[in-house]
UniProtKB/TrEMBL annotation:
Entry annotated with the keyword Cell cycle: no
Key words, A-Z: Isomerase, Magnesium, Metal-binding, Phosphoprotein
Domain Alpha-D-phosphohexomutase C-terminal: 376-449
Domain annotation Alpha-D-phosphohexomutase alpha/beta/alpha: ranges: 7-131, 157-256, 263-371
Protein name according to UniProt: Phosphomannomutase/phosphoglucomutase
Swiss-Prot/TrEMBL GO biological process terms: carbohydrate metabolic process
Gene: manB
SUPFAM superfamilies xrefs: Phosphoglucomutase, C-terminal domain (SSF55957), Phosphoglucomutase, first 3 domains (SSF53738)
Species: Streptomyces echinoruber
Gene Ontology molecular-function annotations: intramolecular phosphotransferase activity; metal ion binding
InterPro entries reported for this sequence: A-D-PHexomutase_a/b/a-I (IPR005844), A-D-PHexomutase_a/b/a-I/II/III (IPR016055), A-D-PHexomutase_a/b/a-II (IPR005845), A-D-PHexomutase_a/b/a-III (IPR005846), A-D-PHexomutase_C (IPR005843), A-D-PHexomutase_C_sf (IPR036900), Alpha-D-phosphohexomutase_SF (IPR005841)
Metal-binding in keyword set: yes
Similarity section: Belongs to the phosphohexose mutase family.
Cofactor(s) this protein requires: Mg(2+)
Length: 454
C-alpha cells in the first residue's frame, strides 16, 4: 500500500487506522524490519481483542520469520502480559493494540529483550527507515533458512509471577468490582485473581474490540460512571477499571469516588519501600501530587522527578536502579517487572493494602491524597511557545515563586504549584495545578487559564 509512515510511526509506537493508514502487508514489513534492527534470533508476539489484531500479528510474524527469526505467538494477551513474556523468555517483543483508541485503530508496541522500550531514539526510527526503503524498492528476499512460528500460552505463568510479587493469601475477604471495558482485563483478571479471598463482580469482560459499552479509557470520567454506580449498588469494597490493553488501572473507593493515580503511586511506593527495607529510589513525573515525594521521603526512599512519558520514566528507572515509578496517567512501573508498566500489579498492591487492614479504602487512601488538584485541563492555542512565554513573563520575579522548564513550564510557590506543557501531537497546552486547599487551586487555575486563553 502507499503508506505515509510519518502519520503512523509515533514517538513510542506505531498507531493508525486500519486499513486506511496501514494493513497486513505493511505489518509484514514492520516484522521484517523489527527482526533486522534488533538482530534477534527469536521474538515473541501478542495481540489484543480488536478485530484486526490477529491478522496484523500473524503478518508481522511472517515478516520476522522471513528474516530468520523464530517467532513465539502468545495470542490474546494484555500489554503487560507481553512484557512479562519478553522479560521471562528474554526475547524482543511486539504487542498489537491501540490501547484506548477507538475500534478502527490498531498499533504495535515494541520492546527489546527484557521488555526494554523501543522508541524513536532506541530503534523505532531505524525500523521506520527500513520499511520506507522497502516500500520504495520492494520487500527484501527471504533468508535461506526462515524462522519457525510456534504458539505458547503464557497466561498462567504471567499470573503466577504477579502473585509471587504481592502476598494476598492472608487478606480479609473483599468484594471487588472490575470494569474491563470489553478489553484485555476480561482475559487476564479471572486468572490473576483465581483462588484469592475475593468476590469478583465482573463488568464488560466479554472481549469486544468495538467497545460497545464505553471507550476503554478510564481516565475520562464518563467511562467510569458505570463502575461507580455498580460499586455503590453492590456495596463493594473497591472498584477497578482497566484500559483496552489492560496496562493501566484506575481505582474507585467504596463510595464510588475516584482515587487519584498520585495517591495510588504514593501507596504502592510505600509498600515497595517497605519490601526493600525502607530504601530505594522512586520515580515520579513532574505533575504527580506533592504527596508522592512526601510519602517517599517519610518511608525512607529517594524521590526522583522526571518528565511526563513512559520513555523518560523507564530511562530514569534504568539509570537510577529505581524500585518503582508512577505517573498521573495511571501507568505504574516496577523493577521486579523488568522496569515495565503493569496496571495489574499495581491493582494487586492496592488489594493487598486494603485487605491487610479493616478500614474502608477511602480512609486508607486519605493519608496519600493530601492536596486539592485541578485535574488536567486542555486549551487549544494557535501559538504554544507564545502562550508559554506569556505565562513565564506573568510569574517570573514574583516573590516566593520559582520557575523551571524541565517539561513545559512549572511554577511553584509555598502553598501551590502548576505545570503547563505543550502536547507533542495537537495544538494544545495542558494545565495541571495543585494547592493546599480548593480555594487556592481554583484561583491559580483561573489566573493561568486567563493567560493561556487570552
Amino acid at each position: 500500500m502507499a503508506a505515509d509512515l510519518s502519520q503512523i510511526v509515533k514517538a513510542y509506537d506505531v498507531r493508525g487506522v486500519v486499513p486506511d493508514q496501514w494493513d497486513e502487508s505493511l505489518a509484514e514489513l514492520f516484522g521484517a524490519a523489527f527482526a533486522q534492527v534488533t538482530g534477534a534470533d527469536a521474538i515473541v508476539i501478542g495481540h489484543d481483542m480488536r478485530p484486526s489484531s490477529p491478522g496484523l500479528a500473524r503478518a508481522f510474524g511472517r515478516g520476522a520469520a522471513a528474516r530468520g527469526a523464530d517467532v513465539t505467538e502468545i495470542g490474546l494477551c494484555s500489554t503487560d502480559q507481553l512484557y512479562y513474556a519478553s522479560g521471562a523468555l528474554n526475547l524482543p517483543g511486539a504487542m498489537f493494540t491501540a490501547s484506548h483508541n477507538p475500534a478502527k485503530y490498531n498499533g504495535i508496541k515494541m520492546c527489546r529483550a527484557g521488555a526494554a522500550p523501543v522508541g524513536q531514539d532506541s530503534g523505532l526510527a531505524d525500523i521506520r527507515a527500513l520499511v520506507e526503503r522497502w516500500l520504495d524498492e520492494g520487500a527484501p528476499q527471504p533468508v535461506e533458512t526462515p524462522g519457525t512460528i510456534t504458539q505458547r500460552d503464557t497466561l498462567q505463568d504471567y499470573a503466577a509471577h504477579l502473585r509471587s510479587l504481592v502476598d494476598l493469601t492472608s487478606i480479609r475477604p473483599l468484594k471487588v468490582v472490575v470494569d474491563a471495558g470489553n478489553g484485555m482485563g476480561g482475559h487476564t483478571v479471572p486468572t490473576v485473581l483465581a483462588g484469592l479471598p475475593i468476590e469478583l463482580v465482573p463488568m464488560y469482560f466479554e472481549l469486544d474490540g468495538t467497545f460497545p459499552h464505553h471507550e476503554a479509557n478510564p481516565l475520562d470520567p464518563a467511562n467510569i460512571v458505570d463502575l461507580q454506580k455498580r460499586v455503590r449498588e453492590e456495596g463493594a469494597d473497591i472498584g477497578i477499571a482497566f484500559d483496552g490493553d489492560a496496562d493501566r488501572c484506575f481505582v474507585v473507593d467504596e463510595n464510588g469516588a475516584p482515587v487519584p493515580p498520585s495517591a495510588i503511586t504514593a501507596l504502592v511506593a510505600s509498600r515497595e519501600l517497605a519490601k526493600h527495607g525502607g530504601k530505594g529510589t522512586i520515580i515520579h513525573n513532574l505533575i504527580t501530587s506533592w504527596s508522592v515525594p512526601e510519602v517517599v521521603k517519610e518511608n525512607g526512599g529517594t524521590p526522583v522527578r522526571t518528565r511526563v512519558g513512559h520513555s523518560f520514566i523507564k530511562a530514569e528507572m534504568a539509570r537510577t536502579g529505581a524500585i518503582f515509578g508512577g505517573e498521573h496517567s495511571a501507568h505504574y512501573y516496577f523493577r521486579d517487572f523488568w522496569n515495565a508498566d503493569t496496571g495489574m500489579l499495581a491493582a494487586l498492591h492496592v488489594l493487598a493494602a486494603l485487605g491487610g487492614q479493616d478500614g474502608p479504602l477511602s480512609a486508607l487512601v486519605a493519608q496519600y491524597d493530601r492536596y486539592a488538584a485541578s485535574g488536567e485541563i486542555n486549551s487549544t492555542v494557535d501559538d504554544q511557545a507564545g502562550r508559554l512565554a506569556a505565562l513565564k513573563a506573568a510569574f517570573e520575579g514574583r516573590e516566593g515563586v520559582t520557575l523551571d522548564e524541565l517539561d513545559g513550564l512549572t511554577v511553584t510557590a509555598a502553598d501551590w504549584w502548576f505545570n503547563v506543557r505543550p502536547s507533542n501531537t495537537e495544538p494544545l497546552l495542558r494545565l495541571n495545578a495543585e494547592a493546599r486547599d480548593e480555594e487556592t487551586v481554583t484561583r491559580i487555575r483561573d489566573e493561568v487559564l486567563g493567560i493561556i486563553r487570552g
